[in-house]
């Protein structure tokens, strides 16, 4: 089974990302871009092979969505690094991607070809992929918030807040696009755009929380600490939306959005 080869692709990709993170600290930008890019290519090659082998996009189980999250974290990291030259961002993205890779190695899941009819919609893959990109960007924004609250020294945070704002704005844009795709998919599959099941309810709560951040920044641009706490709380809500609802009694047996945890 293709899953048995995951460790080879994963360890090679993480090793390349780690070299890229090391190169970034040493101001070796060419090496950082090259090795991080190669790591992304290796990891995405595995995702493509799994996609072809399963004859469906690998997005059905939590393990499969963790694959995409592990891919998008270094991708968002290298984008931030290329734009703002933050040396630590590749270290963060590599470490967090390695954590998700490790979870998949320690908890392998069953990956069958079977998809329920609703998941065979052409909206299924772009909806989840766009959401995973949003989660990666908003994860980076959350880490920036913790960094600015507890580790950044000094009062001039304009540059750091610009980065945090841009990560959040782009992440929220992806989240909004993902919600719209999900609504179209739901209409096609179940006959309605929105049903307020547990997943949709938490998605709306999360979206509104990030919208609060956007408006707070608009009207209180010089008040930084409350903004950062809003981001951290919003990211906690995002975790509930992503995987926490799988453990809610209200979602058991009724939500069409809970991931298969078997």
UniProtKB/TrEMBL annotation:
Domain Cytochrome c assembly protein: 87-248
UniProt KW keywords: Cytochrome c-type biogenesis, Membrane, Transmembrane, Transmembrane helix
GO molecular function (one): heme binding
Name of the protein described by the UniProt record: Cytochrome c assembly protein
Recorded superkingdom: Bacteria
Transmembrane segments: 6-25, 32-54, 66-82, 89-108, 128-151, 163-186, 201-216, 228-245
Transmembrane helix recorded as keyword: yes
Swiss-Prot/TrEMBL GO biological process terms: cytochrome complex assembly
InterPro entries linked: Cyt_c_assembly, Cyt_c_biogenesis_CcsA/CcmC
Location relative to the cell: Membrane
One cellular-component annotation, GO: plasma membrane
Membrane topology: Multi-pass membrane protein
Keyword Transmembrane helix: yes
């Amino acid at each position: 089974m293709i899953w048995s080869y995951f460790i080879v692709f994963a360890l090679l990709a993480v090793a390349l990302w780690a070299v890229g993170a090391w190169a970034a600290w040493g101001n070796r930008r060419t090496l950082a871009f090259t090795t991080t890019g190669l790591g992304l290519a290796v990891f995405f090659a595995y995702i493509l092979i799994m996609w072809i082998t399963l004859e469906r996009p690998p997005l059905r189980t939590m393990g499969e969505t963790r694959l995409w999250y592990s891919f998008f974290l270094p991708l968002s990291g290298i984008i931030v690094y290329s734009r703002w030259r933050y040396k630590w961002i590749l270290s963060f993205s590599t470490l967090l991607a390695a954590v998700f890779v490790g979870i998949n190695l320690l908890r392998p899941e069953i990956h069958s070809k079977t998809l329920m009819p609703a998941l065979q919609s052409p909206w299924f893959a772009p909806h989840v992929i766009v959401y995973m990109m949003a989660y990666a960007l908003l994860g980076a924004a959350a880490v920036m918030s913790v960094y600015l609250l507890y580790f950044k020294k000094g009062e001039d945070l304009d540059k750091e807040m610009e980065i945090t704002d841009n990560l959040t704005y782009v992440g929220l844009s992806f989240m909004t696009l993902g919600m719209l795709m999900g609504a179209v998919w739901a209409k096609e599959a179940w006959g309605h755009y929105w049903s307020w099941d547990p997943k949709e309810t938490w998605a709306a709560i999360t979206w509104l929380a990030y919208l609060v951040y956007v408006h707070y920044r608009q009207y209180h641009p010089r008040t930084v600490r409350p903004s950062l706490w809003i981001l951290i709380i919003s990211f906690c809500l995002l975790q509930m939306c992503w995987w926490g609802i799988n453990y809610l009694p209200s979602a058991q047996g009724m939500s069409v959005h809970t991931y298969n945890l078997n």
